Please model this.
Amino acid sequence: MTTRTAVRILLAVALAVGNAPAGERRPLTVEDVFETGVLRPQSLDDFQWRPDGRAFSFSDPDRGGSLILQDIASGVETVLLDSATLAGSGRSRSEKRFRLPGTAWFPDSRRILLNSGTDLAIFDLTVFDPGPDGPRDAGWPAADSSRLSVSGRMALSRLTDDPEEERDATVSPDGRAIAYVKRGNLCVLDLGTRREKRLTRGGNEDILIGRFDWVYEEEFSIRTGFAWSPDSKHIAYWELDTSREPRFPLTDFIPVRNEVEWIRYPKAGDPNAGVRIGVVPAKGGRTVWADLGPEQDIYIPRVHWLPDGRTLAIQRLNRRQNRLDLMFMDIRRGKAKTVLTESDPCGWVDCNDMVRFLQDGRFIWASERSDRMHLYLFAPDGSLIRPLTSGDWDVTALAGVSDTDGWVYYESTEKSVRERHLYRVPLDGGRPERLTEEPGTHRVDLSPDRGAFLDSFSNVRTPTRAVLRRTDGSEIRVLRSGALPGLDTLELVAPEFLTFRTRDGLELNAMLFKPADFDSTRRYPVLVQTYGGPASQTVSDSWRNGMGDGWGQIMLQHGVLVFGVDNRGTFGHGNRFMNLVNGNMGLGVLDQIEAANWLRSLSFVDSNRIGIWGWSGGGWMTCLAMTRGAGVFRAGAAVAPVTDLRNYDTIWTERYMGLPADNPAGYDESSPMHWIDRYRGGLLLVHGTSDDNVHCSNTLQLAHALQNSRRPFSLMLYPRKEHGLSGKDTRVHLYNGLTDFFLRSL
Model:
């Protein structure tokens, strides 16, 4: 084997789980995975820290969706509310009822805001009676609404009672008011007088006030379009003018007379919504608009209030998304000045969620200026004070900052690019300290007082478990063990982690699953699982990507090896590695092709029986592999694929590709439609006809081109289904179909 294709085994784990003899383990079925959820660990739904940091709440599906409060020190749990109690608290059966979850704590830690989607209510813990024995876990009578009143005072009180939705209801920092969007405008409800005041005018179907269009929500992961100032005196809000955005039809084909829903959806190169930021007094008055300069074709993905309540920090991103400016707005005059700029002429810059503004004016900011994502401390004027982290690894999340002892908490890949761990580093400089130990992926939620954190942990052999820890890493208690009944009776295997070098010298991470009864003298077909889009990651040490990959386990039981590789442009090797696909995302498929050719060199792989599949971006990569890489892959299944990048939205596509008019060759080479003449056959296309993300027209365009070139393919459509193809029946049908397709095709 040559050094170019030599494989270095980094980590090999056991191929079978549990102590049950192999003959007693039963095979996994599609129904097990997608109907009964045997590989899905129990979760803490709607987990929220109480603002004082001394307790947390969550919704427990095993107790009828009840809202539970757990005290950190004692572990004692109190059932606060359940759906039956809420139903019984109304004046009549016909009265609108609140649902759980859908809760938010007031800053005083004594009240909870309930949001039914169309109405609001307050649950007051100072009135609530937990019974003569105090808080307990025994569970009270489900509809015992007598516990909702003490001495004639009601613990549950309705705030609104009308047909209009109070969207994104948010409690003010002083707990005296609630802001929301209603009838298209920003409103505030004074809790003392129970009077609602409208703060803006002009919101309508095209002018979005305090809310976002589809593309902002999807690609900037943002929902609430307004923010209270720390002193509760002002509210900053977005205003988007979507009137220039093209409309796209979503058709319901099931009724005799088809129905059409129109959505605003700007595709690559189309006009975006106009955006501006305003600040309005919470008691009403004139809006002060931020003066962000003459450039209008911009994005505003984030705003942040500074602790002084007089300054608003605004992140301004240019249309090409290779320059991000942090600007400080004087809310009295609207004038905004640029404090610092991040730019990448060879790639892109993402909006920054890893930013914290300190009481003394300094701020923490994440940057890839060293090629890796690290944390930096800046002075109020934007001058650099010092790096807080450094090294050949990436910070992936800023978990919190402790004002009392000066610790900065963050998640990173320092231990391994396949893992995530929690660390802390002194704000004034010093060595980082790792707080999580078990190998694998840790996702943390730090308490408001920085005294504890929720550690959600898994690895390829360990189902996700939730552990409450102190901020020195020591365990307080296990909240969810991750135990799955009957796990050791299932025929499950974990992957081997690998790396290999491409012909041009890139080292890529990969993972390979082998059947439990693997025989090195046999020759096996291989199924490649892919996503491959920019900044993504497929190869990780997590339950979901290991034994928890239920359909992958099913294919193993049928004697099919399962393989995945992170191609160039994906996360984990630094900014320059991601920038290798800037302007030509389709170059990533060359690594998928080279990986398949490497698989062919293995003695236990049947070189003529290699397949590939993926969803969304993975569907796009699959279509590229079956066209540009035709002949390498015998069969491919593309679920909800993008087939021409010009079909996809402005923000995501242009971030990596630029505008189509500026980069026609890059768009062509990255789109499966361009390589249709190379296609030989073996492709299954799957799509939901109501997909508002990757429109079904992508699949239909490719199908049309394949038909016109007389090329064979298969097609499965799911009417009324969106991008995720949700629903047990749909998922069972889909994965049984995928199983049958690959067993026939490989």
